[in-house]
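A.,

Following up on our hallway conversation. Structure tokens first:
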């Protein structure tokens, strides 16, 4: 695993353990307004494989000013893929 993959694994563990300085958005299941998604130019298509493009989208969204409102529903809501 490369350095960026290890960083992302660390961020995911921090979020799952609800540590104080954790990322507030985890790419496993996230939603945003279409206008924000389009303003960010969506997912970066340069990524090969899977696993980091959602983190990149999260990071770009969180760097915006004003920062988007974040609601963390991990462990509170279930999502089923049909």
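Then the amino acids I'd put at each of the 82 positions:
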């Amino acid at each position: 695993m490369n350095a960026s993959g290890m960083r992302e694994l660390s961020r995911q563990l921090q979020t799952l353990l609800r540590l104080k300085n954790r990322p507030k958005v985890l790419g496993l299941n996230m939603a945003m307004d279409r206008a924000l998604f389009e303003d960010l130019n969506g997912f970066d298509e340069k990524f090969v494989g899977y696993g980091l493009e959602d983190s990149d989208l999260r990071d770009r969204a969180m760097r915006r000013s004003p920062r988007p409102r974040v609601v963390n529903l991990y462990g509170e809501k279930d999502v089923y893929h049909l």
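Residues 41 and 50 are 18 Å apart (CA to CA). Curious whether your intuition agrees with the design.

B.
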